[in-house]
Amino acid sequence: MTGYSAFTMERAQRTIRLTKREIEVLGLIAQGCSSKEAADALVVSKRTVDFHLANIYDKLQVNNRVQAFRAATRLGLIPFEPSMGSGRDI
Question: Domain 20-74 carries which CATH code?
Fold first, then answer.
């Protein structure tokens, strides 16, 4: 999913919709949480988190967590926070 044109990105933003819960899951995963840790934080089962991840991968047409995070930030579906996961407060 590299090399998006402005037109492609705008079109994707209009057609790809992540649910509130999918955004929450992706945010936790982007912070380095495992599926189990995300499940505990959201008070759901690991299976539920994995279900949401599968839906995210399908919607974004990606195969893993890193690709999902990169695609979602590139498309403006979730905010990009450079300090995420750095372990330091800025």
Answer: 1.10.10.10
